[in-house]
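Propose amino acids for all 364 sites.
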């Protein structure tokens, strides 16, 4: 049976740019345009454009909106000020990670939750369950198909944005947002991203997305696909749900404790308090190859001749010019400088654990 794939409003734009279209989380999305490594380098050096309209956009409104969001995520939601954004995790009762998200506080009783495309239905169902059980006054509104989303990323983006939205970059510090106009197009703009670079995520009406994309491209931004996005997020030590974490992993194992408000009451907090007290058996470690070879997803990780885990994400870093990766290992093997080996096509190649992120941008 042929799978029906959804398309964003930018599909025709991608095809016209000779984008290589591939299935991704139920959508037909561009993997690359001019090439994955070239696009990744462009984002690190100048500015890139990503279509992320496939990601879920769910609004929560009402007097209990903050309470519902506080209950299903690991964040201290009431502490987030107006027009601020925060990274968080949506977890189940056992602490398993249903999704990792960003939410924006748009009003006294209004929040926007951004979910991964593959988890949009699961997050929607989880929100509906707890609205029914505990927070009946909350209005949930999935506007994924009505609101587009363009990631505008790279060190030159503040200066370029100033040409079409004067003063906006100065107004928006990281993890802040504003409802404004960009080149005359009404949009919600957040200073957020998934590349490790400075940048913005711009959310206009879906019908306005092609116009806005073209304007930003005319300013010099390079069209980028999913391939470059994956390279960039790995360099920045940013985890990918479904690969580096899932419902069988918890935030403590995944090294995301700093995003868990353990003094707040939520559906997962008791489980996470218990895991933190006892300590997880495994932890996610970042590593770099010492020997020649590229670590790939699924490759076995060895220590002293025994299998101790497997690579969850791995690849060549064009920014660092080395092979890097992530993988779960026994907690005692996770400290920095631990020696590991990666099975690369039947040959054990030396690696060592290193600090995350692998790459950090220079800050002004």
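Proposal:
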């Amino acid at each position: 049976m042929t799978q029906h794939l959804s398309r964003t409003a930018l599909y025709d734009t991608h095809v016209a740019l000779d984008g290589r279209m591939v299935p991704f989380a139920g959508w037909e999305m561009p993997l690359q345009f001019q090439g994955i490594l070239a696009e990744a380098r462009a984002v690190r050096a100048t500015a890139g454009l990503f279509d992320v309209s496939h990601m879920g956009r769910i609004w929560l409104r009402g007097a209990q909106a903050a309470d519902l969001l506080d209950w299903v995520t690991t964040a201290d939601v009431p502490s987030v000020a107006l027009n601020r954004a925060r990274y968080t995790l949506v977890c189940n009762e056992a602490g398993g990670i249903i999704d990792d998200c960003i939410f924006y506080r748009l009003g006294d009783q209004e929040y926007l939750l951004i979910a991964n495309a593959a988890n949009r239905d699961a997050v929607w169902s989880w929100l509906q369950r707890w609205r029914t059980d505990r927070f009946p006054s909350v209005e949930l509104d999935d506007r994924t198909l009505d609101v587009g989303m363009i990631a505008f990323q790279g060190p030159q983006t503040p200066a370029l944005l100033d040409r079409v939205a004067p003063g906006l970059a100065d107004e928006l510090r990281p993890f802040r947002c504003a409802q404004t106009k960009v080149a005359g197009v009404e949009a919600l703009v957040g200073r957020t991203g998934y590349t490790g670079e400075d940048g913005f995520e711009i959310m206009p009406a879906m019908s306005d997305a092609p116009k806005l994309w073209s304007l930003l491209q005319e300013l010099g931004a390079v069209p980028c696909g999913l391939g470059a996005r994956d390279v960039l997020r790995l360099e920045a030590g940013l985890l990918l749900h479904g690969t580096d974490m899932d419902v069988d992993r918890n935030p403590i194992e995944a090294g995301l404790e700093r995003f868990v408000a353990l003094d707040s009451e939520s559906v997962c907090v008791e489980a996470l308090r218990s895991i933190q007290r006892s300590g997880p058996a495994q932890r996610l470690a970042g590593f770099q190859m010492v020997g020649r070879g590229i670590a790939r997803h699924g490759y076995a990780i060895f220590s002293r001749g025994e299998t101790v885990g497997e690579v969850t994400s791995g690849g060549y870093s064009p920014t660092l010019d080395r092979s890097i990766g992530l993988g779960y290992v026994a907690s005692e093997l996770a400290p920095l400088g631990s020696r590991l080996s990666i099975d690369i096509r039947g040959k054990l190649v030396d690696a060592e654990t290193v600090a995350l992120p692998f790459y950090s941008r220079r800050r002004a």
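The domain at 11-55+146-235 is CATH 3.30.1360.120 (Gyrase A; domain 2). The mean pLDDT is 97.
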